[in-house]
Amino acid sequence: MTAAKASEVGRRFTHRDKLPPVILVFGPDRGLVTEVSDAILALFADSDDPFAIVKLDAAAVASDPARLIDEAGTISMFGGKRLILVRDAAGRNMSPSVQPLLDHPPTDAVVVVEAGDLKRGTGLRKDVEGHARAVAVYCPADTGRDLDLMIEEEASKFGLTIDADARAVLRERLGADRAASRNEVVKACLHAAGGEAVTIADIDAVVGDVAASEIGEAVDAAFLGNRRALDAVLARVLRQDSAAVQILMMAQRVSHALELASVAVAAGASPTRAVEDVRPPLFGSHRTMAPRALDIWPPGKLRAASEAIAEATFRTRIMPHLAAATTRDVLMRIASQVSRR
């Protein structure tokens, strides 16, 4: 098996003649799955063969396994390799179509199969990861660092900079889909074009809140100790793909801000003033919640909460199939630790 990270695709896949015969692109970030597939498709864009790229729907392939096998065996009329892209394969029985290609890899075609999040050791993922000449490209949900790098990359394309405060505001408004997030960043850059930097004003003008507001509600409920509200909102929001990662990212940022603000409160500042002065700043419901949280959270417990969130974030990366349960557990533990001073 050859495994690849989505971030490595540009370096590893540089020419169509060097591509493996079967590539599975999968993961919870559907937008990133599409970006990776598009990067592979771009390697065939200059082909003289108008049929060099064939796109098939997974439902059609699953109902007629021979169709994919026939397409992969078709020789290009102008020579060179062809690409067959199969979209939306998650939840479908693709083994009858893909396994024959793994047993007898095509020499004149590259088959790319797109899927959502697939459990390790099952179905299509098991088939591809168990084969020496196939490559499985995993597309995880964006972390805070991934989003920061993407924001910086897009800003640099426009000759713009973006400071830490503006980047934090923009990151909080981005959701779990890489393609949708990139579009929002480009909108902010276009609004700032002609200036030197992307500002919070640019972001406020054009960038909507891609992440569900319920994610913010969950974090607020945890730090205010409202377990009933937290349980209700988690029951809804954790049904969404990658919501767990987004919740932990937001919880980490809020926890860090509360820690910093608690230092100012200990030095004599009012909770409201401490929240107003904290950097990166808090916005929206978090800004309203934070002074109340500072009244009920001792500084030492805030540090413990931050450490618990960091540990939960690490666990979701090594055990993504437990992300929802891990996120629920840590937020419920945080809510249970709230005590009035």
TrEMBL record:
Keywords of this protein's UniProt record, alphabetized? DNA replication, DNA-directed DNA polymerase, Nucleotidyltransferase, Transferase
Annotated protein name in UniProt? DNA polymerase III subunit delta
Q: Which organism is it from?
A: Acuticoccus sediminis
Q: Which Gene Ontology biological process is one annotated for this entry?
A: DNA-templated DNA replication
Look up keyword Transit peptide and say if it applies.
no
Return the InterPro entries for the record: DNA_polIII_delta, P-loop_NTPase
Q: Which PANTHER family match?
A: DNA POLYMERASE III SUBUNIT DELTA
Q: Name one GO molecular function term.
A: DNA-directed DNA polymerase activity
Gene encoding this polypeptide? holA
Q: Which NCBIfam families match?
A: holA
